[in-house]
Amino acid sequence: KKNMIAAADGNISYKYSENEISITPSGKHKGFIREKDLCVITLDNRVLRGTPSGERLMHLEVYRRVPNARAIVHAHPPTAVAFTVAKPELTFLPEKSLSEVILAVGAIPIAKYARPGTQTMGDVLKPYLPEHRVLILARHGALSWGEDLIEAYQGIERLEHSAMILKSAIELGGLSELPNTEVQYLKSLRKKLGPKTL
Fold first, then answer.
1. Residues 124-160: pLDDT tens digits?
2. For 155, left (φ over 0), alpha (ψ -120 to 50), or beta?
3. Considering just the CA atoms, what is the radius of gyration of the chain in Å?
4. CA angle (32 as vertex; 31, 36 as ends), nearest 5
5. Is the whole-model pTM more than 0.90?
6. Residue 1: other Cβ atoms inside 10 A
7. Integer distance in angstroms from the first to the last C-alpha of the chain?
8. Spatial distance between the Cα atoms of 146 and 59, rounded to a whole number of angstroms
9. What is the DSSP letter of 34?
10. Which of 3, 40, 64, 125 is the most buried (most CB within 10 A)?
11. Angle at 107 between CA 182 and CA 129, to 5 degrees
C-alpha cells in the first residue's frame, strides 16, 4: 500500500529459531500471500518447505553476521533507489539535512550494485554489518534488518520517507545541511537512544 514494491518484488524473512527461518515465496505478490505459502529454510540454506525467494542468500548473510537480527524486509522503495540511479557517486544517503535520519536510523549506506539472486548480494552488505540496520542496494532496492518485524519494516518506511523529503528539497532548490554542532549533538543523542531503528 505504500508503493515499496510492485508485482512479485521484495521479500520478508523471520528467524524464529537458531537455525530456522521463515521467508516469503518466490514469484508471489506479497499482498496475496497466505500463511500456507510461507517457506522455511535453514541458516545453511537447506530448503525445508516451499519455494523460497531467490534472494534468500542475501537474507542468510545478514543472519549469519548479525546474531540479534530476527527479521529482514527487502523492498524496492522508488525514491531511495532513484538516488542511486541519478547520483551513482553517492556512498550514503545525505543525512546531515534531516534530524530524523540521524536520530532514527543514523547513516544509511548505499551498497554497490549486485546481480539479483546471487551470493554477491550478500557479499556487498558485509562491510556494513552489523553497524547499519538500513541499507540501500544500488540500482535495486533496500534492506532493513531488525530485532523484530516492526523494526525491520520501520527501517524501510523511514528510508523512503526521508528519500522523498530529500528529493523534494533538491527539486525546490537544493539540499542544505544542519550546522555541524547540531549534527554532532544529534549523533551523540542517537548513541544514547541505542542502535534500534525508530
1. 999 999 999 999 999 999 999 999 999 999 999 999 9
2. alpha
3. 17
4. 125
5. yes
6. 4
7. 21
8. 12
9. -
10. 125
11. 145
